[in-house]
Amino acid sequence: MCGIVGYVGPQQAAPLLLEGLGRLEHRGYDSAGIAVLGPGKESRVRVAKKAGRVRDLADELPKRFSGKVGVGHTRWATHGPANDVNAHPHVDTKGDVAIVHNGIIDNAAALRADLADAGVDLVSDTDTEVLAHLIGRSEAQTLEGKVAEALARIEGTYGLAVLHAAYPDRIVVARNGSPLIIGIGDHEMFVASDLAALVRYTTRVAHLDDGELATLTADGFSTYRHDLTSVPRSATDLELDPTAYDAGEHESFMRKELLEQPEVAERVLRGRLDERFGTSHLGGLDLDPRELRAIRRVKILGCGSAYYVGQMGAGLIEELARIPADAEAASEFRYRNPIIEPETLYVVVSQSGETIDTLLAVQEIRRKGGQVVGLVNVVGSAIARECGRGIYLHAGPEVAVASTKALTNMFLGFALLALQLGRVRDLSIADGRRLVAALQALPAQIGEVLALEPELTGLAARLAESHSLFFIGRVRGFPVAREGAQKFKEITYRHAEAYQTSELKHGPLALIEPSVPTVAIVPDDELTERNVGALHEVAARGGPLVVVTHASVDLGDLPSQASVHRVDVPRSERELDPILMTVVLQILAYHAAQSLGLDIDKPRNLAKSVTVE
Ligand code: AGP
Predict the structure, then answer these.
(1) What three-state secondary structure class fits 384?
(2) Which atom in ligand 1 lies closest to the alpha carbon of residue 351?
(3) φ, ψ (nearest 5 deg) of residue 336
(4) 50 CB neighbour count, 10 Å cutoff
(5) Residue of the nearest CA to atom 8 in ligand 1?
(6) pTM of the model
(7) Catalytic annotation on 387?
(8) Which of 48-62, 139-153, 218-232 shows the lowest mean pLDDT across its residues?
(9) pLDDT at residue 124, rounded to an integer
(10) Mutation test residue for ligand 1: of 27, 305, 602, the one with most atoms within 8 Å of CB
């Protein structure tokens, strides 16, 4: 949700900033801008910003835009519409200060009023502009002092980077609730809200914690608190493959990430399965068997797709470990003053590790003394650090807004957790081994599902012709339907609604007609007969059907005029079937969006990580 990049060093900043912004664009893409500090004694701040994509900004950048210190931003609008004026960077009245900011300033309205009373002319609708003026008006003698003084008046969240014409050798950055990573080069320094913008230049990084600021100059960085007392941060070298952030020969990141699933699934399982004892090893969980046995309930929290896969995870835990488990949207949890129980294990799940609602849920649980573990993809992210223990998902960088490979690895992370919880309880060694073998086979089976792509392409294009669709499933299949509907609406902008198959006749059946297709999840399990019954009810009302099922399932004699397309998926163990069916729905959503000619990696109104409440 908004991306920040900054540079100070011997090179021209503008091309580096634009390149970095291009890599951050998945974080927000309604406008973009950069500011550089011009060379020489008479240095001044130059700003270029524009509604639209980074390439629109690059196309219109003035030819002479030189400066070796600069900051850039790609925006996802919160305060005010996406237009040139509201785009970042924002400047103060004199044009000395330029600031880029992620997050939300909660007391912006009051501060705007104070500034207006003091005669300041605010030109944008944003909360960020307030900060530019506060810094510009500060009488502190250093840029560090000016920024700290301005921040003392701010309530809210921020990751920000500031330039000032009077201090042309530096950038001051600050973090509170929005990520910032410092990249350390050879006599040059970078800052970004996401590693993606840094890896091309350096893999030596330092993380800032909330409540900390840093000053970057070409020769190094220093970190300090708001009272300007030093808080040293050491640098670490990351093992990162810079090409992981490139789409390569693929037409989109989503397609690349879809196709990576067999490989990343293998990675999350690697070294974690124990064939002999039919269990899993999860070192990062940091819970011994006695502590695992003491757990009486599991509560899973995540947002969006992470919440839906959390529902799949809760099902796995109940089935394998027979511990009551449920999932809840992290965005709601904190607001109902949740009861935190000592014998409950709270599991938060997040690809980015930055989703603010999930992070705040972790903080609420910890504040009340609950034990929380994280299933997180991004190593060292805020949620991973706040949890302190959990299961890393090893899916690699996920760039497309629509989550695919991270979601698959979340499911596998839950399977590993459920297996371990089960094996310290009543799950037999035979059942444990059965699941270990099935998990080992899953990466190849995901590959088999991906091989169905040619068959699914035309089908997806036909589904895309409908403006409204149902996705239905029962018990294990219901979260699959929810995730399928989510993926479909996210990137096709079609109305896709998930329902429990059993609930159809309690209302939504009224909407079934030839223009409203239903995608049904019908695994070969104890509910097959009932699921098939519901298909007949839909077909009898002229509703077209896409049935995601197993070859062994007999759909019976559906009315001859009914439009039915079945997609047979390889069988796993029934507890694990949901993920194979989910991959089918990912492919359908992808090709439906492609047939509509949409920008799949950057769906309208969305951003990759949601770092505002
Ligand atoms: C997934 O396709 C969505 N873009 C979205 O629902 C996402 O899963 C959600 O915002 C949570 O993100 P996280 O996993 O990074 O916490």
Answers:
(1) helix
(2) 14
(3) -115, 30
(4) 18
(5) 305
(6) 0.86
(7) no
(8) 48-62
(9) 95
(10) 305
